[in-house]
Amino acid sequence: MSQPGLWETLRGIIWRDLLLAIRRRSDVAISVLFLVIVASLFPLGVGPEPAVLRTIAAGVLWVAALLACLLSLGRVFTADYLDGVLEQMLLIAQPLPVLVAGKVFAHWVVSGLPVVLLSPLLGLQFGLEGEALGMLVLSLLLGTPTLSMIGSIGAALVLGVRGSGLLVALLVLPLYVPVLIFGAGAVTSSMAGIGGEANLSLLGACLVVSVFFAPWATASALRIALE
Amino acid sequence: MLQAVSLSCRRGDRRLFSGVNVTVQPGTVLAVVGENGSGKTSFLRMLCNLLAPEEGVVLWHGVDIRRLKELYYAQLTYIGHLNGIKDDLTAMENLLLTGALTGDRPSDTSVRDALEAVGLKQRIHHLPTRVLSQGQKRRVALARLWLSTHPLWLLDEPFTSLDQAATALVTERLRSHLQGGGLAVVVTHHEVALPSEMVQRLRLDG
Lengths: 227, 206
What we know:
The structure holds 2 protein chains of 2 kinds.
Chain A: H1 6-23, H2 25-46, H3 50-72, H4 74-83, H5 85-90, H6 96-125, H7 130-157, H8 164-191, H9 197-225
Helix pairs in contact in A: 1-6, 2-3, 2-6, 3-6, 3-7, 3-8, 6-7, 6-9, 7-8, 7-9, 8-9
Chain B: E1 2-11, E2 14-24, E3 29-34, H1 40-48, E4 55-60, E5 63-64, H2 65-68, H3 70-73, E6 76-79, H4 91-102, H5 108-117, H6 122-125, H7 134-142, H8 144-147, E7 152-156, H9 164-179, E8 183-187, E9 199-204
């Protein structure tokens, strides 16, 4: 017997989660539909005035993306916890934080990436165009993985706790605030003509910090949850 | 060689067991028995390093498993009271994916053979496990034993939900594992039908 390499194990974890997402397409569709519906309700409520819609676009689309991500957090570990797969994962002969990072990446592909891909369409609905639209896509591309990373810590902390859906929102939403500010700020700055590069840099910094720290925090929370 | 030294366990305010000393030698199985709630599963989880003991230490070849971590995990196959299989995947997919993660790296043929060895006919191999009965799901989980190349098996109630024929198959697989120099710890309410020199018993009284 030879032990699988780290990359091989990581690929296995990601492939399994993606395969499960393909089998349970309705779960994925729910958070995407939620995003589309929330983003579509605002123009109906605020009115069709293009100037007003353009002003609120960045904030509304970022909050909708954030809530869609929050909605999908329950999928990261709960099913694995209930069917015993998480227990097995803790006994794989590879560092747990790396396996966690693989699961979070798969979660982002399934729930964050569709948000990024849909965002130009939703942006057009709010009258965004050109550079602002590109900035929205870029900011979500940098920001949504951070949301998944931070969210995974909350999802692991509330594993097996009654009312975990509400609890994870209370835990995670305050931690999402910097990402929301920098993400929406990047689009707003771009629309104001001062460029959103500074905000993008800060989003990138958030991503780097979360990639380095969140998997370790999540792994510790998982070990505690399974004791 | 697996050793539990002065293991104690407390869940909440209740002490489940204390001062448990036991050594499992290659070629033997430790059958852990006791009433419901006596701490059998907690004991097994301590041997896996899933649960930290209140006191005491678990040694693998004389080294604390908490120091060995991944090196120790590379030596064990654990099947808990939950099957650890995904309902949306087929039996084949479950075993192939799990095997790739645990280092057993089974081929399609060996997975098919393992499923047949545990009594699951070929038409079942490609069905999502959600449509299988409890007994069939347990068989899928236990088919991992036919693919396992690890020396230490830790099994929590492996015979639950199994009929007599499947129980005999699993017992026979356990026997061949022990004859090959492996060792095992089995938490069970059932009698392990192996020769007495292969079986040592640990009763937890709770």
